[in-house]
Write a structure and sequence with these properties.
heterodimer; A: about 280 residues; alpha/beta; five-stranded parallel beta sheet; 13 helices; about 45% helix; about 15% strand; B: about 400 residues; 17 helices; 9 strands; flat; disordered C terminus
């Protein structure tokens, strides 16, 4: 079965190739890209498209590799032992499965998302090498080895805050999601807002890409910001002409959804001022 | 047949290993991609290139390899190239307007035209396998989608079905180009030196467990002071005229340093270090401090970072009175040596691209004065510089 994008997710050809290669070879796929290009969404969409169970593991700066495997809750066991509970006899009762274990135990081949792996400690990917390579791990408390019933399709996202270790990279397929080109972007918008009028879409895209093309922006608007903005435009029921109604203004209406940094807004105001003076 | 490709990638310093190469072959043999050059391009890239900064190098090697591989085969065009590729090629080569004009031609006619053009082209450029049309009415010109010129690909034909690799869209992603405040902060974080001192206000779990055990199970709570970053840094920034073109990146470095390092003292100098440095930015001359005072105030355990392009007349370094702003009693190099002797942990960070260093005499001199501890203002350079500062002691000069 091949992944070819979904009704709500437009995948480019290179992305499809990478996803399919990773699924065929049952190896992790590492996805990087600008913020707001749909890295995290990808895993969910792959799971939906292929009809597979989906597990997500969101990484924080304090996350340890062990958390994805299992955690042993010694404190509850201690408490139960004071209360003389029956279940204290079996250590299994105090072992909490992590997302990796859940994905390994899944009846059908699962899709596992490891989101923002670069947030964790620099050693984190190394601690998962064997687990992702062999798809098995050892539980010390019960002295058993957990082996994946089906090797899950693992999709890992990274925002490039830390370099990932080479040994880890060697085991992954890699894909860098580029910022979509205007026609891909148009398809993406249409998938989300099928009823949008062509004229409005065209005008909005022009505004969006011209804002993005300005050099020196602190935070360039991304796909998710464009979608938010168009949602607002539709909610306000603006016509295409309204967007550029006032040519003396450098920014379109409701720009707050696109520009989230006041220095950027000020810069556009200065640009508008300059262009007015030139006229 | 791809072994050459593998080695060419390695030669272009794309860090690809045998394991990844085998992974690519396995994926290929299991039909993980469409069976065309396009599919192979994407598949091999996702299997063998693990960082977008190498995408550009990959594109170049790919282009080179495939034009080379197809170069010797004369009749490849006739035999090998599937019709679909050519159709795709035609669709991509012509813009919609031209396509409409050419609609009258049947596909065969169109392909004949294409073949005829390619033959002609081959006659004209012996051995050349690159053909860049020049627009006009030529159906195979560069008036198509690619402003850099669409390569019909000579003998290769099919290999230019998409030419993603020719556009080299990933040129800007090499990591010595992009540098932002956040990335600088991450680099500076390597300078951390954690020390626990001050009030004991943090619960010490390990200590408590040990103490409780020693206490025969009777709870004995232990506290420790919070961990703090105690690294101390002196930053000297050049704000001379030639630094104007580097102001943005220097500002980013400065603001990152200020928010990341608690014990940061910074001074400005103009072109080179002399007997005084300034505190106020934009060369506010009134606020100067004698350099001797700096040496007397801050202890040698301060890590010292100079930021400057070191681009000036050599006299400004070597001569008494060489400064272009005032009469200096001692040459700049004496001052720099003095500071380096006092602060053994020092690096010079230079915004000038590294490949230009050796062609500027003053820059070369500064490099030697720093005994090689000069690093470019890129993420890699900063990383290296911070590693040297952290280890401490003068590094050996690199040649």
């Amino acid at each position: 079965m091949k992944f070819t994008g979904t009704d709500t997710y437009i995948a480019t050809e290179d992305l499809m190739t990478a996803v399919n290669a990773a699924i065929t070879l049952e190896r992790p796929l590492l996805v990087k890209g600008e913020p707001g290009t749909g890295k995290t969404l990808l895993a969910q969409e792959v799971a939906d498209a292929l009809g597979r169970p989906f597990f997500e593991w969101h990484i924080k700066s304090t996350t340890k590799a062990q958390h994805g495997l299992y955690e042993y809750d010694a404190v509850s066991r201690l408490r139960d032992s004071q209360l003389g509970e029956e279940r204290v006899q079996d250590i299994r009762n105090y072992i909490k499965r992590g997302m990796l274990w859940e994905a390994f135990a899944s009846k059908d081949q699962a899709v596992l998302l490891i989101d923002e792996i670069d947030k964790a400690d620099i050693e984190f990917p190394n601690d998962l090498l064997r687990e992702l390579d062999r798809m098995e791990f050892y539980v010390y408390e019960t002295q058993e080895t957990i082996v994946a019933r089906h090797r899950p399709a693992v999709i890992i996202t990274s925002n490039n805050e830390k370099e990932l270790p080479d040994a880890f990279l060697r085991r992954c397929f890699f894909h860098y999601i580029r910022f979509p080109e205007p026609d891909t972007m148009e398809r993406i918008v249409e998938v989300h807002f099928p009823d949008i009028k062509k004229a409005l879409l065209k005008e909005a895209m022009e505004c969006f890409f011209s804002i993005r093309s300005v050099n020196g922006l602190k935070k360039k608007p991304s796909t998710s910001e464009l979608l938010d903005w168009i949602k607002l435009l539709l909610a306000e029921d603006l016509a295409p002409e309204d967007l550029r109604e006032d040519s003396t203004k450098a920014l379109p209406k409701l720009y707050g959804a696109l520009l989230k940094n006041e220095q950027d807004v000020q810069m556009f105001e200065r640009l508008a001022f300059l262009s007015r003076r030139q006229n | 047949m791809f072994v050459d490709f593998f080695f060419q990638l390695r030669q272009a310093s794309v860090p690809v290993t045998i394991r990844e190469y085998l992974m690519m072959l396995e994926a290929l043999s299991r039909g993980a991609s469409d069976n065309d050059v396009d599919g192979f391009y994407h598949l091999a890239r996702s299997a063998m290139v693990k960082d977008e900064k190498y995408y550009d190098a990959y594109d170049k090697v790919f282009d080179n390899f495939f034009s080379g591989a197809m170069h010797d085969t004369d009749d490849l065009f006739a035999k090998v190239v599937p019709e679909d590729w050519l159709r795709a090629l035609a669709e991509r080569t012509f813009d919609p307007e031209e396509l409409a004009k050419l609609q009258k031609m049947s596909f065969e006619e169109l392909m004949e035209e294409l073949a005829r053009r390619l033959q002609e082209q081959r006659g004209r450029h012996q051995g050349g396998n690159r053909w860049i049309g020049t627009g006009g009415t030529s159906p195979f010109g560069n008036s198509g989608m690619n402003p850099a010129g669409v390569r019909i690909g000579g003998e290769g034909g099919g290999k230019s079905a998409t030419k993603v690799w020719e556009k080299r869209e990933f040129r800007g992603l090499a990591d010595d180009v992009e540098i932002g405040t956040r990335n600088i902060k991450l680099a500076l974080r390597r300078l951390r030196k954690f020390v626990r001192d001050g009030a004991e206000d943090e619960f010490d779990l390990d200590g408590t467990i040990r103490a409780t055990a020693e206490n025969a199970g009777y709870l004995d709570i232990k506290m420790v002071p919070e961990r703090k970053n105690r690294v101390k840094v002196l930053l000297f920034l050049d704000i001379g005229g030639s630094m104007d073109s580097h102001i943005r990146v220097s500002e980013e470095l400065f603001s990152a340093a200020r928010s990341e390092l608690k014990h940061l003292e910074y001074f400005y100098f103009h072109n080179f270090l002399y007997e005084r440095v300034w505190r106020q930015d934009r060369r506010g001359y009134n606020e100067w401090t004698p350099t001797w005072d700096v040496l007397n105030t801050y202890a040698p355990d301060y890590k010292t970072i100079f930021v400057g392009d070191a681009t000036m007349s050599p006299y400004e370094i070597t001569e008494i009175g060489g400064s272009i702003e005032h009469w200096n009693e001692e040459p700049g190099e004496v001052w720099l040596r003095r500071m380096l002797a006092f602060y053994p942990d020092a690096v010079w960070i230079n915004p000038v691209p590294q490949d230009r260093w050796m062609s500027t005499p003053s820059l070369r001199m500064t490099y030697q004065l720093m005994s090689g501890r000069m690093y470019p203002l890129t993420l890699e350079g900063l990383d290296e510089a911070m590693a040297v500062l952290r280890k401490g002691g003068p590094a050996l000069a690199k040649h």
